[in-house]
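Format notes (please read before filing issues)

Several people have asked whether sequences and structure tokens are stored in separate files. They are not. Every record keeps both together, in the order shown below: the sequence lines, then the token lines. Line labels are part of the format and must not be stripped during preprocessing.
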Amino acid sequence: MNKLHAQRSYQDRLARVQAHIHDHLADELDLNKLAEIACMSPTHWHRIYHGVFGETVAATVKRVRLHTAAGMLANSAIAIEEIAKRCGYPNLQSFTRIFSDSYGMPPARYRKEGSHRKFHDALDEHGVSANGPWHVEVRNVPEISLLSIHHHGAFMEIGEAFDRLFGWLAIRGLVGPDIRLIGVYHTDPDAYREDDLFSKAGALLKDSDAIDVELPVVRTTVAAGRYACLRYKGPYADMKSAYLWLFGKWLPQSGEEVRDGPVFEEYLNNPREVAPTELLTEIYMPLEG
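Then the structure lines:
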């Protein structure tokens, strides 16, 4: 088996595992079953997965389940016990304990007091200043050339595309300390059906133009120009309220005009390495001028 064929084989097999995890969160995710899906030896495949992605399979399952649960808590009225069931927790008690350990508060309190509430509450305040307690900086951004994978569907589920992209890069030895991960969002989740949403999971690498790409990876260009940048700290699940505040409060009071084109997000640290409450994201909104 030549090197390129081997890379494609590992990429495809690990991608099947990631897709199965994301699609079956409510099921018991048996490690031997996942080994079968990967068509790898149960004895060694955990080491391969850990070596490629930098986290164990169990850590991936936990991270994706909690991310999905946090999104439901922040953005829906689904009962907490039902959220626990949909995310694969056997009972409310275990869900509450595990969620509290990662997010710093139990699910019910998170729904009422999570970081999404600060932005949501600001939307209801009359006379709030243009910046409120959050800083927005207008920046001139050069053209950005990304290696990316397309994602269709809920933006909260773009993590699967990022996992596939990370695996594609890692298998080729392209993951280094200077890699920048960027999500590009082409449609408004409040204006389109969830099935019609389109986004891209992207990576900015040094000398990325010299890298040979093949599907599912494609090249994506983010246009140069002026952008409003909001730095956000907290779980990805809470960012919908930040967007509503940025477009609904800051923009009308700023004197700026939004420019046609996608928004994008840059993820400044790694959800595999830091708690959800410590995640740092910069949200970029295109501006005229």
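For reference, the curators noted about this record: The chain has two domains: 3-112, 136-287. The longest strand covers residues 144-152.
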